[in-house]
Records
---
Amino acid sequence: MKSSASNTYFLQGNEACVEAAVIAGCRFFAGYPISPANEIAERMSTLLPKVDGIFMQMEDELASINAIMGASWAGKKTMTATSGPGFSLMQETIGWAFMTETPCVIVDVQRVGPGTGQATKCAQGDVMQSRWGTHGDYSAIALSPNSVQEMFELTIRAFNLAEKYRTPVILLTDETIAHLREQVTIPPLENIRIINRKKPEAEDKAFFGLEEVAPMPAIGEGFNVAVTASTHDEYGVRFTADPSVHTRIVRNINDKIRNHADDIADVESYNIDNCQVGIVSYGCTSRAVHEAVEEAERKGIETGYVRLKTVWPFPEKAVKRLAQAAKKLIVPEMNLGQIFYEVKRAACSAEVIPINKIGGGELIAPEEILAEIERGNP
Amino acid sequence: MQNRIEIKIGGHGGQGVVLAGQILGKAAVFDGKNALQTQTYGAEARGSLARSEVIISDGKIGFPAVRKCDILLAMNQKSLDAHFKNLKENGVLIVDSSNVESIPEIKARIFRVPATEIARKEFGEILYANIVMLGALTRITNLVNKESLEKAIRDSVSERTLGANLNAYRKGLHTKFET
Amino acid sequence: MMVEAFSPRKYMRDLKFPFCPGCGLFSVSDAFLRAVHELGYKDLSKFVFCSGIGCSSWVPSPYYIGDSLHTLHGRSIPVATSVKLVRPDLNVVVFGGDGDIVGIGLGHFIHAARRNADVLVIMTNNMIYGMTGGQVAPTTPLRTKTTTTPYGSFEHPIDAARLAAAAGAAYSARWTTAHPNDLRKSIKKAIQTKGFGFIEAVSQCPTAYGRRAGFKDIGEMLKWFKESAIAVEQSKKMSEKELEKRIVVGEFVQRSRPTLVETVYAMIEEAKAGAKQN
């Protein structure tokens, strides 16, 4: 739906994600039904064919994530969408994507776990899974939108980061943001920055690890590219005997993210240098913070916040700055403490207090955060 | 948080409470306001309780859940019983009087609209009751512009049912209601 | 016209296969490359290779001069399916072993056949997990001793070629490494058949299977293949009991039904036409 005045729509988070993906250039989607991510596949199946894109519902999440690997190497921008259980199934292949430097976007609409948990209820329990879900050494990128507008913007950004750094990017959203409907403004297409992967020159032969982000050929372009997630040399030839080859390639897939953490990490912050109390939040939980802070300030307590739009790499600098001003940091999460420990690590001497709520999907309310802000303050 | 209005719409699955919430939210956006709509998810198929919530504000909408609502639309007795305690004091309660027999003793402005009866009589289809209710809501509260709501209906329903939906809306706008 | 003489080196990188002496994979690769040669392909630029984990998955990656995706254990088929969808102009060939294709990857195998995904799967069936040291496989004959069935295997083996046919494959055939000519001819046919093609090549693993199963040398294993082979047609007259120790060889299906590429692209055209109308 379109309003007459501007390109403002009233969409669900999951729907805005699809609109953005198609604008970002996604032309291959594979997925498997799972709540609360289904609206993404459903809308993709409608939109993609109209733009010569391919939608596939695969037999399971393993097939889905592997299908987007193949399509990415065949030259397409690709995406899948799932929730915790499916995200767990995909982890081995996400490791394959890190090791082979395959750009793709994986949407995880978080729900209550572990196990089947509460399939339709909101949670934030996959924060560490999005960082450490697969085995081995790698550096992940995970983005955390907190509105339908940001579902749109961060989906575009997820594709751009995937293409720029030749890496899988996780859009770590949650049931609340994915299902709520809000207005979303889609800027004119010419104002949306789209990044595409670097392609090789005809004479290029080294596609892995010699430079920070090597050019990526597509299948069928005559490069005779060998792709393997076994330890491989710069030509993609499996070479598992030499520890130095492994060290070089694995250091590279880490360094290309770590060395650009400041480019990738993104936060929204408020009053971080002059607050007595600071709040670190992300995703659905952050929706309660604004109201709590307003109320605290009305009561005369200087309060600031850092909202993580990027969960990984963890925006350490911003949190450190907040911790330098505030005596106390509050970390509300719909889990039993995940980002909490990252904040604690960055906060040095500041006291860090978790607010945790799990099960049932009921959000942490502004009043609960306010009570913690007020505790110990006159 | 200025002028934040919270609306809860309750009924049983199949009465169109989710669609009603979506149309209302859309109309508010057409009015140039901020709007947010959520609905209950779960194993709620036809027949069980369904709920849709809308928040409309001139300012930024932070917390997306409705705690105490300003307006409650109850499409049946069960959802009225379930939600009337969440209505703010002196809030607006609009009930589909075709499906509601007893209204609890509460401090509220109460409006009875026989939406299901109207839908059955006028269109032979009770499923237009939700749109009749939106018409009544618009007339009673002026929450959104009449025209915006009509536009939102046009934008949300299929071509096949558009005529009936618009008629249902007008019926709601002009129906007599008991207070 | 003079046909250029066959040379595997034409298609292969200057690397040596890492397989044990006497491994059946030499024969499988030879049959494939000869088939490609006989079909007139001077190089592998019109091919894409997908493989998983296991010795068989090393046949194309990185040894063939062409594009190759060496994927995870069991996952080559969904990767191949999407590659073919994006590049219908290329021949997509999966190389895998029995553990890869009908063990861990069985679900994908059945669904690819059901979809009639336009890929050719060449499964080398050595009836054992060879790379990991000789554990029982879903293809291991009943009562065979392996490192995880020291008292003999107690499960019935899977019949992959028949399964492919039942699930909807366009082409399915089984041969052994003792039937190199038939194997080559079937591969040629499968490359030319639209839709899901399946070739099962029963093959010897002298290291992990032959030794333990009591075969003195490769010759004995090939003799076993030859003597126990029975043609599909003939097998139809035999009882399950009579077939227990036999290897049924030949073509199990050859048919034409709409392929995944055809149905997907037809749907795209319909969606685009519908979008224009609105």
Note: Confidence is low (pLDDT under 50) at residues 1-5 of chain A.
---
Amino acid sequence: MPAREVLLYPDRRLKQVATPAQPGEAERVAADLLDTMDSLGHCVGLAAPQIGRLVRVVAVDVSDHPKAPENNGRLVLVNPRIVASSGSEIGREGCLSIPDLTANVRRATAIAVEHTAGRFESSGFEARCIQHEIDHLDGILFLDRVASLADDLFRRKRYAGSEDRGAGRPPSSS
Amino acid sequence: MRVVRGAYLRRVSQFAVIAVGRDRPGIAAAIAAGLLEVDGNIEDSRMTNLGGHFAVMLLVSTPSADREAVAAVLAPIRADLGLEALTVAPVADAAAAAAPDHVITVYGADHPGIVHAVTSGLAADGVNVADLQTRIGGAAGDPIYMMVLEVELGDCDAGAIGDRLREIAGANEVEIDLRPLEAEAL
């Protein structure tokens, strides 16, 4: 299978809801996703709509990433659903479909995912990537989830009236 | 170094100091040093790089200096650094700081009129903008414009504001989202 071109916003396909993937089709799309990911080198996740296929398939692989010491290896998820989530943290995200923009996005810290081949749990950077990719299946881009302005840590202290609680922690970057 | 404490307890004059200059190391330091010469206290500030130009916005109080005195210490700094703009203006006692309660994100293919469409829609409904920042990204030759606003809805109806923003989004071919601002103790 060849590597596919990654669509760039404002391509409207990136804002559409993908349909459940059928057997056969799912495998073909998954192979294209993995080939495309590999061709890009630095890519930790890709969703089918990003290569123009409006079906619910994503690929995630953070195993080479320094921020993800614990991970589930190379993941291909067909019709994935987040069935449980806990925790909440802000981290910096970018997206191949929106080059040169990053933003602080709030995501669950730990999630449980069901897909056609089973169920697993994930946390940290890998969980963030999975949430980002599953959002693509619903036409949601990370810019739709910006939590606040870039200086949100500075400001949130003020909103919360908690100036005396210390500086908090800087957002993680990804 | 001379340290003046408690100046804020006295009756003070407040000035808005606005400066813009081609970015280089030392602009913030030079302006801060000049203001210290007139016992200026930087009460609130925003300094950032706008497309290669360093932009400085300060609210400064001093216990004694008048506008001319503040301008006089900054004038040689403007000349030394080759600043493109420098303004010192007296400001009345500041109103209470804005208390934003919602965040609005806007993004779409870059074209003139996005900021105007969104802000004029908000103004028409009496929504106060507390903060507004924009960025340009996207692929070369196909720029994506992104804007994030923190706004004060106050008594305005969030549902009605959301409806208006959706109309603006459709008319301008951009994505717009309105959400409550997260307030969180860390």
Note: The longest strand of chain A covers residues 98-107.
---
Amino acid sequence: MSVLAADSRTTPFGDRLQLGAFLYVLLIAVIGFLVIYPLFTLVMTSFQVGALGRETTTGIGNWYEAFRNEQLSSAFWSTMSLSFARQMISLVLGVAIAWVIARTNLPGRGWLEVGFWVALFMPALPVTMAWILLAGGKTGLINIWLQDMFPFITEPVFDVFSWWGIVWVHVVSSTLPVKVFLLAPALRSIDSSLEESSRACGASMLGTLTRIVVPIMIPAIVMVLLLGMIRSMQAFEIELILGPGERIDVYSTLIYRLVKQEPPLYGVASVLSILFVTLIIPFVIAQHWYGGRHAHATLGGKFSVRVQDLGKWKWPMFGILLSVVLVITALPLVMLVIGSFMKIFGMFELPNPWTTRHWLAALSRQDLTHSLFNSLILGFGSAVVGMVLFALVAYVTIRTRYTARGFLDFLTWLPTMIPGIVISLGFLQMFLSTSIFRPIYGTMWVLIIAVVLSNITVGVQLIKTNLIQLSPELEEASWASGGSRLFTFYKVVLPLIAPSVIITGLQTFATAVSVVGVIAMLGTGPNQPLSILQLVYLDSGRYEPATIVGLLILVITILASLLAKVVSDRYGLGRAKMT
Amino acid sequence: MNRAPTNLIPLNRAQPHGAGTNGGQAVRRAPKERILHMEGIQKVYGTSVAVENTTLELFAGEILTLLGPSGCGKTTTLRLAIGLERATKGRIWFKDQLVDAPEDRVFVSPDKRDMGMVFQSYAIWPHMDVFGNVAYPLRVRRRKADEIRQEVEKALDLVGLTGFGNRPGTKLSGGQMQRVAVARGLVFGPDLLLMDEPFSNLDAKLRDQMRSELKLLQRRLGISVLFVTHDQSEALALSDRIAVMQAGRIEQSGDPKELYYYPQTTAVRDFLGRTLNFKGRIMARSHGNSATVELTEGVICEAAGADHTQSSAIHSPCVASIRPEHVKVSPLEGAGIPGSGYLTGNILTLLFIGDRYEASICLKSGMIVTVFLPCDENWAEGQAVKLQLPPDRIQLWKSEAAQ
């Protein structure tokens, strides 16, 4: 070996370290800026008295105004009571359903779980519309049928435009599927001999579930509940559509209305946003504290899981679960198809209620095709940016030894506690108040950044779970074999975490197509995607075109969810468990 | 760098000997090429010191084993050698090239070091088949496709996996993964192979087989191996030289027999094999190496021939150590004669382990010792026996070193 060659192999101690550190600092700076700066502008705006664009003064007028507002306390109670009610209902049902799916010999349990997976991906607005058709007061299909069958019923029985209506639509569209999705894997990691010994001691199946399984699952259940509360309190679009019936406002809708009214009250909305975040923080802290203490509880061991025999309950149970799955997935889809062919949305009593007029009109409309195009760009853009960024962040937090990587971890958790509508407002303030950002305001980039940021917690977590299961020796073996860091990342790490990266991408895509809250105040110009178009139609009472838009969104997200399921079944577990 | 032609290397080569601690006889041998040289190495993580002031040399064609309990720094030393860790002090040379020297701001990353490595978990990439795994180091080095196929086949033949190329990485048994990992480590013809507890995940029988195969392979290729294990019998069986590590330092290094028979520290003595330790007092010392010791058991015995540098002056308390397999046990006829140079006791339990008995014997003083009994006698629990301690097998230590 020549001396020259030997010299070129010897890299100085510092250079490489500095390059890595530079990338790392850049990552923290960009994410930190995008997460923290909007919050900062919110605080600034909250102290600016006077309408935006005109001369403003600094003062606490907005704070005074916000607390004087009677809507504030009613919004507080609505937010809390609605969240709590649907969490409790979903939890009880979710534990039972997850247990039946994960630990019994229920026929077709694999397919039923796919149903809940699909429901998880289904966006809230189209599902809400379907339930308006079914139970929207006097014109609700169910009410009409009930009145036809039982002449003594004169008033509509179900009204979705109500407190319970909001709870119901939330339960079927997201809270229940989330519970099943999170609890079923946790239940699978319980040693079945624990159940069997309970049965051997003479306990019934139900007794075993309540005395053995649920107590063992307490840590997982508490975690799922806290996470659910955080998410529920941030809910936005269902309340916006169904709330006005009984004049129900939650924090998120209140903020939206303050900004959308003429003239917009940015200052008061900012105050509310800050209060909103502080309301959620205790739950986030509780979740972290509890999660840290009980981290071991959800870890699986090495044992075979034997299923419990449901006996004579097998088929009745199958019937019940199949109905649930159909109600949360197929029913909304079918109702939307029906609704899109109706002359007037929900008017089943017309002599001839059917028409193709709306489809013809929608397909010839510029704004629909334009929004579809925007949605696809937003979906693919967010997916690509998200996959790269989330993989990078996950890799840095798991595999490097930079001392401050805990801070990066914290930054990726921060967006969980900030409601989408607050992120939206924060971004709006940032773009309006900081001139250097104004050029990208109104472009797709704004929406892509907002979507990626709102998805960062889930995305990074998903890839981290995958990465953590890979032995570091797999990479070290590549370095030892002569592969450089970059080559190793490309040839060894990326193929092994590919399943979770692809799932993350599909999930981000589905979110981007259906998301409302995060971009509600950002995507109203030429960059308006389908989801906002639907919201605008709905908010202005034009249900017929909204149905068609909702149907499009629904089909796209269901396809994405099925694709994600295929990927995770094919590669997800089998590979991740290796070494 | 091509692999050394196999026919040039005699199967029974002279044992290379380190220039380290006990290199008295090394004069006879021709100086060996030094492959790896670590000098004054220190590795600190935060406040904990993993490796401290460690110096070792590895010569061409030898197997050097780092032996020690878990957490003693042996794996860290290995990872320092290939560059998966950076030393905080000291210098490392690989074949006369300085590869790690924090004071000189020199660091060669692992992918530029051209060392083969076999990991404890084998680290077989699950998304590649056997061929892909073994071909990887060659692909990284941009060899031609033809050459890669040839070399991989040769490497697979070498480890006894002919025809396994298309098998997915996940469809292998532990032993097969082990072989793939070795093939991957050898395929590009490195001069040094690093092995991190490679046999710890195999079952006992397979482990014995892989040990002898590895030694045979190493002799054929003439490659140098730096081996890490916590298994003393593995180290004794496999190594040309052993370095026993304890708390981040090398306690003693030398060839296996030297370490086994003449441990310099109690840590080495207790880690390599079992010892029986009797307390006593030195009565007399004669010239040479022999001494007369009165054990607290009431027995006077001679210690001769062994290294007694660790023992203290006349009349001071001491510890007499002996390997259990060196204790001669025979049935006791009559009452025995006190002070006659042997210990007496009764067999407490008798475990038949195939080729011999493992017996715990309760001595007169109440001390219980475990020794081995031959199978060709009829032993019985409760039987009275006498234990003779051959003088040349006894090593004397200072008494505070008893534990």
Note: Residues 362-579 of chain A form a domain with the MetI-like fold fold (CATH 1.10.3720.10).
---
Amino acid sequence: MKKSFEDVLLTQMAGNEKIALFLADEDHDFCEKAEELFSRRVFRFGIAECNMVGAAAAFSKEGFIPVVYTFDSFLSYRAYEFIRNDICLNDCNVKIVGMGGGLRMNNLGATHHATENIAALRVLPNLAMFVPASPRQIAPILEKSIERTGSVYIRLGKAFETEIFEDTYIKEHRLNTNAQAEFCVGKPQIIKNGEDVTIISTGNIIAEVIAASDMLEKTGIDAEIINLPTIKPLEVEAIIRSAQKTKCVITVEEHQISGGIGGLVAEILIGKGSFSFERLGLNDTFCNYLGWHKDLLAYHCMDAAGIYNCATRMIRK
Amino acid sequence: MELHQRADQIRRDIIKISYKTGAGHLTSSLSCVEILTALYFGGVMRYDSNNPNMPERDKFILSKAHAAMGVYAVLARAGFFPYDELFTMCEKGSRLGGHPALDVPGIEHHTGALGHGLSVSVGFALAAKVKNSDSRIFCLTGDGELQEGSNWEAALSVAHFKLTNIIWIIDYNHLQLGGTVEHIMDIALLREKITAFGFTVSEADGHNVYALADLMNNKTSDRPIAIIANTIKGKGIPLIENSPNWHGRKPGKQEWEAILHQIKLTHDDIAGA
């Protein structure tokens, strides 16, 4: 997703002189290219996220659209007070882009994982939050974010994400033919219709959900898959309808199960019926297990097998 | 009105707000009266109180935002909002809170938490450069505030981006909430520190409004400007001048008697407009 985002951003900057890029310390080649193309609109702040975010807030007040881009964990944790006070409280027009969301920084360890920031950011007034499911969804998300007046946080992955919006992939996994990379602010995307269990996820972990759905299908369990490219502001009706249909809901996220989309969906379903409900993700723990991304997901039971086991256990009850 | 008389008027306004409303940080506001007076009445800042959003205006960022009462007094006297509104501070429904919010005409940025203003100033200054505007950005920080590391991130970037349109003023009164800056976490050799960051640093008597205005009007430096204003917290009220434990405290009834006696005012003087 990193490379896709960077390509899309430079294209957007070429078409809109109001967009400026605020960088901390990112890959040399990308930064050099951005500086070469747009020298007057690219500012490198170094390893100083707080200052970068505070400056971006004020910069936006002068009619510009600053895109603040660096690692997800450092942006949302270290600079949180600056996001809250300078961007949100001042209702600025800043696009904050965190790269390496969830466990995508893999074996660099828990300091580099961003596994609490949906909880921390989705409660901030005046901040929308968007998460692409796979690289092709980045362009429409960035486009809508730039069009939108007001601040947005975009939580990206990093690399090696499965592209779920390719025709062959859609056919192979029998996803809805209208499951496109399009992005409509607020709308959950029903990627696959089903009758027995609703599985809701955000970000590229949806590829694990789709793989789990394929496994479930072989045992006669028909899963409905909902992608949340918008965390906030979210239209909740599709989620409620699906839960009321299947009576069985699983949330899956590279995040703590409290406060993330597990918490979000629980809030939405309060008072809407009686459901079996499980949340998959990190359960009040950091991910100190080492390995590649798939290994980490498996260790915390949020890979395809973990989702499959959870669904079959719930349905057999 | 002479500039020093304007400063006296602002100081009296602040004392009146405190007396009438019990709101605000009295000593922190009194500490920066001459700094604020020089900015708004010393021919330093370009502004139009009838058009607070005038595009070519200079900007003032109150990073030591607890001194809001001082800024409100200056803004009211400069005509940004009615003078009588000062005495609604912190009352139900008032625009004038303990820290300045965007509802207040003349306030550029809602501040409150310390260590933000210089970064915000960097953003305004960068935007001015991109727009080829000669607008200047004045940022007032406290001294205890400089214990926040974000100020030094910001200072690095002011110099790195060559933001000669920033004037950073430090209200150096040596006191913070819990005692002296020197005892809690010293920022000594402040001039040397900021000079090393790439600023042209001047020091001044922070209660000499004329000297401050002269320094703020220096437009010839090829480096960003920092002014260390040596001040006295609570300046103008002997009872509370340079005294710890007065950071956010409101004077009690007997203390007001003593204060009014010291500054030669009666209850009627101060209760009137």
Note: Chain A has a mean pLDDT of 97.
